[in-house]
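anyone seen this seq b4? input:
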Amino acid sequence: MKIRIGTRKSKLAMWQTNFIAEKLRERNIEVEIIQITTQGDKILDVPLAKIGGKGLFVKEIEDAMIRGEIDIAVHSLKDVPTKLPEGLGIVAIPLREDPFDAFVSVKYNSLDEMPSAAILGTSSLRRKSQALRLNPNVEIVDLRGNVDTRIRKLQEGQFDAIILAYAGLKRLGLEDVVKYKFSPEEMIPAVCQGFLGIEARLDDVKVLDTISFLNNMESFIRATAERSFLATLEGGCQVPLGSYCEIKENKICIVGYIADLEGKEFYKDRLEENLSDNPIKQAKEVGERLANRLLDMGGKQILEKILSS
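predicted toks r here
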């Protein structure tokens, strides 16, 4: 059997796709990689929050899947909207890479060291809101582009520091540029940061059966909880929020937050409970419950204010 994989063209997207392709080839499955340019790859000078957010990186790939031109897509799961086109689904999630955020700078060893008015580059409202809580004196300037582009802009002196996902840096062999890695207590990750998501047509039984070995059940449970949290808040890229789920000692534990754009109104909470006999259903319910608790704490007013502006 041959599996046709659709992917973006960036270096990181190709690494992720080749990682999955190699696992398929190890099982004597023929693979064809088809590169697709998405809207998010074309618009590099505008913050994601202003141009539509997550779906910008997947729509063209999903369209190709619906037309039958590709069989599966390999995504950074944090880029995938919680609502998918009818007939498509995230059907496999491999083991998670390190999900935390990394501080990168040629001048400073940590965010704490940055002096007043030093320039921190990020277009993520989530990173901005949490960074300002850790160091309210920095000036935050929007930064778009792939990992190489962002690091080049830093090295050219356009920024004093930038924040990137550690997972992407590790996958590209760039861990050496990391000066500091944030703990989840300091900076809650993006929903599903570090996860790869394999998307496919839900009625393509042969493909689903062929790629089922790629799924890691613990990863699927954790991602389900985080995506349920996001779906309940319906925030996308327009609202600063984050969530991180882990399973330890047979318990599902999830932490999440929602904030205003400056990180001044900031609501954070966590839930922990013993794993049930139906962990997927439980994960969905736990994520939803945590999100509703944050809405009741003040998140509802934040959402209304941001989405109406």
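The mean pLDDT is 92. DSSP finds ten helices and 13 strands in the chain. kinda curious what u guys think
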